[in-house]
Amino acid sequence: MDSEFARLVLAAEPRPFWLDRPDAPPARAPLRGEVACDLAVIGGGFSGLWTALLAKEANPERAVVLLEGRQVGWAASGRNGGFCEASLTHGAANGRERFPAEFGTLQRLGVENLDAIEAALPRHGIDCDFERTGSIAVATEEYQVGGLREFAEHEGATFLDAAATRAEVNSPTYLAGAWEKTSTALIHPAKLAWGLAAACERLGVRIVERTPATGLASGASGVSVRVQDGVVRARQVALGTSAFPALVRRLRPYTVPVYDYVLVTEPLSAAQQAAVGWRNRQGIWDIGNQFHYCRLTPDNRILWGGFDAIYHFGRGLRAVYDQRPATFTTLAGHFFATFPQLEGIGFSHRWGGAIDTCSRFCAFFGTAHRGRVAYALGYTGLGVGASRFGARVMLDLLSGSPTELTQLAMVRSKPLPFPPEPLAYLGVQATRWSLARAGRRGGRRNLWLRALDAAGMGFDS
Ligand SMILES: Cc1cc2nc3c(=O)[nH]c(=O)nc-3n(C[C@H](O)[C@H](O)[C@H](O)COP(=O)(O)OP(=O)(O)OC[C@H]3O[C@@H](n4cnc5c(N)ncnc54)[C@H](O)[C@@H]3O)c2cc1C
């Protein structure tokens, strides 16, 4: 069977479905020479784009330059699952545990953030196929059902038994579900990134592409951002560089790039759609330790991702890591176990991408260069929505005045850094192995996972 899955996935295009469009914008010109501005934003993913847009909306006079090393949206922001979540904390359980005193505030801010994203789209004429469908967390093992029921009661989600879950999305593996109806929107991520960039330019932001920033240096009145053929002299700088090496070196131990992988099917026929149901088009994720996520695309394909999380020794980041046949074959096997009625459907796209993983699984923030450089990093696979919040935090930090956001414990505290190699590599491998084992043993966590839990680095989806 594995060879059949391998054949199927190899027939798919080895590139992100979202970016594979004839209307993808052409690359903008790189920066040459010297430029001065009030705010230089580094990174053309959601973090950088929201920062530039919000900065201009707040103060149209501010001169803003956005530098992108390759092209806007080519990295995580253009190749994710498109789940735009209200949660700022990588889910309620993680947020409650880490920030108990302010969890209610973080939930409110998260909903306000998602509402603000929804409101910004028509205001800026951005079409990104935004659908506020909600999401269903599904149990696929008996031992998970009780916990899911409790989760639903606690978080105000609708508990679905097996029949009710399958009436929504028909999989024989779904034993129960918790449907949160408003806290998730599904989006087309590349169209959002391109739309934000166009909106930035309409407001007067200058975007340069193919312009990696190579260093920062403080001067008397600001910060110089070095690039290959020039320099940007900025009063202030915002860093939205995600899984890539941080320009502030002392931040590097706080994140590791971890690769996540995705398959997309051919569009479903009417008969295939009838066989899966899914009329309410929710985002779905299962609550295993190594979880899958899936959703319908605007043209009714199924996007299916997750499960494996691959770390390469020495924080490796390379284009070849975007493709991993063994993971695609595993994912295809899991896909057909979940939707056996779709036997015969092909996959059109396969890809992977790097996630800026930190040990607390939600973003951390701060400043460097005497308050002139702000950063927001470490979204750990849930930054589509939260990156707009991170952009607000960076702008508030740069304002120099205390605000509701800058006073949050979440903003004022940092995750534990990862150890140097080879310990980082060994630690990640031990965690993967232990999580897989726990999944096979009714969720029972071994000594290693319990030690991580005790140190505040435990992961449980
Ligand atoms: C496969 C996959 C699936 C995911 N699914 C989801 C999901 O469904 N929901 C969700 O919420 N999150 C998801 N995520 C995570 C989400 O995509 C990210 O959290 C989010 O896009 C981060 O945005 P960003 O702008 O911080 O980073 P990025 O999109 O990675 O952008 C960073 C940019 O900075 C640029 N850059 C870096 N260094 C420099 C430099 N020195 N000079 C110039 N430019 C530089 C890079 O070229 C890049 O374009 C997923 C991620 C992956 C990889």
How would the blueprint of this fold be written?
Blueprint: H1 2-10, E1 33-42, H2 46-58, E2 64-67, E3 83-85, H3 92-98, H4 103-123, E4 135-139, H5 142-155, E5 158-160, H6 162-168, E6 176-180, E7 184-186, H7 189-202, E8 206-208, E9 213-218, E10 223-227, E11 230-239, E12 256-265, H8 270-276, E13 283-286, E14 292-296, E15 302-306, E16 310-311, H9 325-338, E17 347-357, E18 364-368, E19 373-377, H10 386-399, H11 409-412, H12 423-440, H13 447-454
Parallel strand pairs: 1-2, 1-11, 2-8, 4-13, 11-19
Antiparallel strand pairs: 3-7, 4-6, 5-6, 9-10, 10-11, 12-15, 12-16, 12-17, 13-14, 14-15, 18-19
The structure holds flavin-adenine dinucleotide.
Features of the shown structure:
461 residues; binds flavin-adenine dinucleotide; 33% helix; alpha+beta; 9-stranded mixed beta sheet; single chain
